Amino acid sequence: MRFPRLWSKTLGNVVFMGDHKKGGHFAAFEQPDLLANDLRKMFGIGGPAFGVVPGKSGYAK
């Protein structure tokens, strides 16, 4: 389900949002590589969620 990005401001502290042309209701099943890449971007070095767990270095690859 797609919704306007402006709506994301009402969802709380959104730190990462991806937008893909492929994938539907079951996007993680239909396009697992896209989901995995988004997770790498989000938790990787320089990503918005890198180092969010105190005492842990995060995903470093």
From TrEMBL:
<dbReference type="InterPro" id="IPR029058">
    <property type="entry name" value="AB_hydrolase_fold"/>
</dbReference>
<protein>
    <recommendedName>
        <fullName>Epoxide hydrolase</fullName>
    </recommendedName>
</protein>
